[in-house]
Amino acid sequence: MNPKLYxxxxxxxxxxxxxxxxxxxxxxxxxxxxxxxxETIPDEIKMVRGDKLRAYRLTPEVGRTARVQMPDTLTHxxxxxxxxxxxxxxxxxxxxxxxxxxxxxFFDRPQRISDFFYVDGYHGMLYTPSEVRFYDTKTPFTLVxxxxxxxxxxxxxxxxxxxxxxxxxxxxxxxxxxxRNALGYYTYNRSKDARYRVFTSYRGDRYELYAYVANDxxxxxxxxxxxxxxxxNNPERYTNGRTRISxxxxxxxxxxxxxxxxxxxxxxxxxxxxxGSYQRRAVRxxxxxxxxxxxxxxxxxxxxxxxxxxxxxxxxxxxxxHSRQFKAESPSEVFTKAFGPPVVSHKVKAADGTEMDLxxxxxxxxxxxxxxxxxxxxxxxxxxxxxxxxxxxxRQENNxxxxxxxxxxxxxxxxxxSTFVGxxxxxxxxxxxxxxxxxxxxVLGSDLGALRLEGDVRTAFRLMGRRFxxxxxxxxxNGAPSFFAAHHHGTYGWWDKQLEFTRRAELGARLxxxxxxxxxxxxxxxxxxxxxxxxxxxxxxxxxxxxxxxLRLRHANRWGMLNWELDAAYQKSSVESVLPLPELSAAADxxxxxxxxxxxxxxxxxxxxxxSSYHAPYYQPTTQQFALQTEGYVGGKTALVNAYANFRxxxxxFFLEMYNVGEALFSNPxxxxxxxxxxxxxxxxxxxxxxxx
Length: 693
Prior knowledge:
Elements: H1 6-14, H2 43-49, E1 53-59, E2 64-68, E3 91-93, E4 101-103, E5 133-137, E6 141-149, E7 156-167, E8 171-182, E9 191-203, E10 207-221, H3 230-233, E11 258-286, E12 299-328, H4 334-339, E13 346-349, E14 355-358, E15 362-378, E16 389-404, E17 411-427, E18 433-445, E19 451-463, E20 466-479, H5 483-486, E21 487-490, E22 493-496, E23 502-513, E24 518-528, E25 530-533, E26 539-542, E27 546-559, E28 562-573, E29 584-596, E30 600-611, E31 618-620, E32 625-627, E33 640-649, E34 652-659, E35 671-673, E36 676-677, E37 682-690
């Protein structure tokens, strides 16, 4: 098949419009003005894959990409890559690997509550345009992961795969798939999710396209947490002659089948047309092995026609549809005990003809969003004296929300829309100083007056023979409140509130000393009209100013076979009654690394997590929010300790991990947050195979 037909055919299969492609001369594109790949790709990744496979991440507002590392390629972390603990320095979650979570380190949390706030607990686990990766590969690749534990009644299974292939030099097609099923170690604690993404990209001289269609499906059983922590703190009191009790024996608040179900559908299309010309330039290319040709050590100078882009016009469309259902299989009085008196009930007739109130949660909500962005960019580096790129964009957002009416309980649709204008200036290819800054203003609709200013600066220098890297960033935001945080209609909670715009001002600075494996980060944030959730999971707003200060230190190094990675943070909230945080958090990873037969690399180590005592949140199933509580403290006693053996043999990686091994050594309350413990000690294993040919 003619390679020129691949793109229109792929777009036809995906149901996307195929634009008229400009005819391009068939010259080899060796562009000396192209933006260089600034982000350093770790040697460990290059050692596994070479440079045959490249991954890119998109800036959706302007449709431009930057090269990033492949997912799941830092091989030391194979044993914990999908665990909740890997996501942050400290994590509050329900004890299951795919359950909702919240970082205990404030600056790892989302900067604002989304319009469909029920999904915020899956932060970082969804397909979003700014997080997904697109690929460019010289040969087809397949990355497969399988993981399970060694339990029957509490089985956990993970099957994930990434596949990508280039059809010609410019067109790439691929698929992501991720399935996880965890029965849970506690009663009614099962979580199940399935996700997939079908994607394509076309990287031409003048025309670029990035597109995907994706779905996320999450189901979480709700048990309301444990009711008696003494079963965990003093299990010998409840053994009844057995050597130990099971986690299933620990009583939970809800003894009925109650679950939350999330469905998210996505469709994304970004197209860019670049203006420029083909020019003859002297460039350096890898030296061929042709006999008789005079070359340098590894490259030579040749004259070649290259495409020099000057400006770009991009159009981005992103459609999402969020659906949430909170449902019980049968009525029970235990729901009233757990959530309080119901707001909504129904009259039903019993067999004897008498009427009775039936209360059984069956709440649902839906939000559909269409974002269309048009951007015009002046590209960095099209002349040697052009040291930065400049972009302007216009974005239109349309939203359709479905909620039940308070009288008829029938679902009614509310529509709201917003128009934004924005600009972006950035320098990514500089040798000494790089920066970016973005400004966005809501000019029409429900976000009228919304403002977001953000920027960062990066530089590097040498001092006393050592290389230092400095980074600084800032954020100023005045944003409209979340729609569903203001309007929630449910069986055990029903409100419509007039919430004020939230304000956030944030500054951060980081110092890296690579030769010592050390970095330090200082951050501060000022919050006004801060949104939080009370003990019932209901939205509240705190008007006065809240200050958050954090200092984080990281160090990684080795001595012979001994390796260590240390991470510690101090943070302080000025209003702990509204924003409680653990003041101290720390993680330590210590392991031995050695080779067997010069081909198999083995890491044997232990990793521990600890934080100081604080009023950790309580997860409220009715709204899927992390709510305030003052009944108990979490942390400050013992650490979560995991032992592991990590193996790598060419393109295969496998591991064994004893999760929560500290439970065998010392008393361990093992609470992740209030009333929600993480899993007891268990053995799990997994394998990752990289089939890059």
